[in-house]
Amino acid sequence: MDIQKIGEKLKALRGQESRDSFSAHFGIHRNTLAAWESGERLPSLEFLSLLAQQKKLSVAEILGEAGVVSTKGLSSPQKVQQEADTTVNSEYKLERERACSQFSWKGNDFTLIPLVKAVLSAGGGSFETTDKIEGHYAFRNDFLYYRGNPKTMKLFRVDGDSMEPRVSDGDIALIDQGQVAPRAGKIYAVRLEDVIYLKVLNTQPGKLILSSYNTDYTPIEFDTRGDMADCFSIIGRAVWIGRELD
């Protein structure tokens, strides 16, 4: 399976449509599409199935497994899924596993950290608290161990502007869930009732204060000795903030 040729096929199928428009249509980031088109990474099966439906092709034809591409006839979703399960699953998934194993084999220098779908609010609070995994990011082990324990780390997307200019809307926060002891002035992911926040944590006797870098937002204060104590928990400390550039 030639990854470069798959990338070229994706570019050809996109045609004159802009990368921004094309990626938005399929619900993926433009940088992800760029990596697929350049042959840097293999596209996901989910994307290939959707693309096949739109272009009236089979997944096998997009991957170059069935010779000359034909645009005649519309593949049903069931047929597309069946092709993804048969033609693609064996060779395609094996290729992905081989690429991943080659990447992580050299000295076991990298750890894959899960990106969960829960969103950390840098604003009025987020109710998206699911632990469902959206994907993984690879980090060097020495980078992670310097900051905490990789086994207790997860990545979360940030929503809102309350932590500007330090943390921006759309950033990704690396949270070490093993670091739950409050340290004054550090950034933590916290849960208050059914809402999760990304805030600067400070303490006073019997009181916790959740502050923002953006002065437009009023600090949240509550008494840790009252009824609110059972409604509050520290998810973990933010040890790194990153962002994807357009």
TrEMBL record:
One of its GO terms (molecular function) is DNA binding. SMART domains: HTH_XRE. InterPro entries: Cro/C1-type_HTH (IPR001387), Lambda_DNA-bd_dom_sf (IPR010982), LexA-like (IPR039418), LexA/Signal_pep-like_sf (IPR036286), Peptidase_S24_S26A/B/C (IPR015927). Residues 27-62 form the HTH cro/C1-type domain. Gene3D superfamilies: lambda repressor-like DNA-binding domains, Umud Fragment, subunit A. Coiled coil: none annotated. CDD domains: HTH_XRE (cd00093), S24_LexA-like (cd06529). Keywords: DNA-binding, Transcription, Transcription regulation. It holds the Pfam family HTH_3. This is Predicted transcriptional regulator.
